[in-house]
Amino acid sequence: MPVRSSVRTRSRGGAVLLRLARIVLAIAPLAVLPAPGWAQPAAPVPVPFPEALQRAATELFGKAAITGDRIELVIDPLIDAASGAQSAATRAMQQRLVEIVRTSYPRFVVQPFTPEVLARNPVVLVGTFTAISLAGNESPPDAFRICLSLADLGSRSVVAKGVARATPDDVDVTPTPYFRDAPVWAKDQATDAYVKTCQGTPMGGRLDPAYVDRLPANALIQDGIAEYEAQRFREALAFYRTARKLPGGDQHRVRVGTYLANAKLGRRDDAVDAFGDLVDYGLSTEQLSVRLLFRPGSTQFIDNPQTTEPYPMWLSQIATRVRQKNACLEIVGHTSRTGPPALNERLSVLRAQFIMDLLLSGMPDGRSRMIASGRGFRDNLVGTGRDDASDALDRRVEFKVIGC
């Protein structure tokens, strides 16, 4: 009798559990439904570029969580978040922001971006401009996302944010001369820290020390960029050399600037050494992206001797440094978005094979340590498909260090 009672009890308990489980399953779909009248916030609707920038600026300065009648403000030059480059668009944004501050928000006093001003713990404006696809897939970019943040060095926190989306009409994303001339691309730690400060740090969040610690060096690097673009190459070189000695100054942009300035000054041996330094840095991070420009639809370089003149030296240095490190490489070709995907896929492979053959002419024993592949336009950084200076970075060749 006790045994039967125990069995019945367990049976009833199991029935109760089964019933509860059915109830939970029945109401689970309802639990995720929104309350009546609730709607998920819609993404910002893209508006013309000037209006979008005005919206982001109004949100940024109008709601800044910082007190004071006179707040020193410096602008760490705005960048394209995908490439890390400054462009005609980001420069125009910066100029317009200065005008907005002076006319509408006079308590913010714009100061030069220098180590001396940074030592007084001002507020630093950072901003990114990023091409996006509104469909959220692999469609061509059809809008730009503007992100602005105010980083207060006194409190080491983000005190304001402003975001907006702009339509692509009349937006010039052509890189400025320094970034257009850069032979090698890398999104280094300094760029990542900048983007994180703008896009990844919430309102009231603590600033990334990796960004703050590099600010004095970043100011000198920007001076070097400005001098280079003003064709004062000796002065540019001096700024790069000084920046490299500072904490956080050993950056990819310094290496690029050192190469460019020496090349412009006709210092061939110094330029070769500087390019070799760029290659070593890229190989140490296991990824080296070199801007090698081809004729449209071809595996031959463009017909511009001024552009292609240094290519043999670049490839020679890559071959030499790879051989010295006994490294193995995957050579990856990329194309812009123009043209059918299948054609671009094949073209990117053929371009990678062409570059591999050029490298092997200088290191015939390296055939077993190289492979060629292509990505078509799947890894575009710009993605406009304009096939001009604005998307030259999409037509690049990558050298990835792989296991032998």
Topology overview:
Blueprint: H1 2-31, H2 49-62, E1 71-75, E2 79-80, H3 88-104, E3 108-110, H4 115-118, E4 123-132, E5 143-152, E6 157-166, H5 177-181, E7 184-185, H6 189-200, H7 209-212, H8 215-229, H9 233-244, H10 252-264, H11 268-284, E8 287-290, H12 305-308, H13 311-325, E9 328-333, H14 341-362, E10 370-374, E11 397-402
Parallel strand pairs: 1-3, 1-4, 2-4, 9-10
Antiparallel strand pairs: 4-5, 5-6, 7-8, 8-11, 9-11
Helix pairs in contact: 2-3, 8-9, 8-10, 9-10, 10-11, 11-13, 13-14
How does this model look, in words?
The chain is α/β, with parallel strands linked by helices and 404 residues long. Helix content is 46%, strand content 16%. It is built from 14 helices and eleven strands. The chain has helices at residues 2-31, 49-62, 88-104, 115-118, 177-181, 189-200, 209-212, 215-229, 233-244, 252-264, 268-284, 305-308, 311-325, 341-362; strands at residues 71-75, 79-80, 108-110, 123-132, 143-152, 157-166, 184-185, 287-290, 328-333, 370-374, 397-402. The strands form two sheets. Strands 1, 2, 3, 4, 5 and 6 form a six-stranded mixed β-sheet that branches. Strands 7-8-11-9-10 form a five-stranded mixed β-sheet. β9 (328-333), α14 (341-362) and β10 form a beta-alpha-beta unit. The radius of gyration is 27 Å and the shape is globular. The chain starts with a helix and ends with a strand. The relative contact order is 0.10. Mean pLDDT is 87; it is low at 1-39.
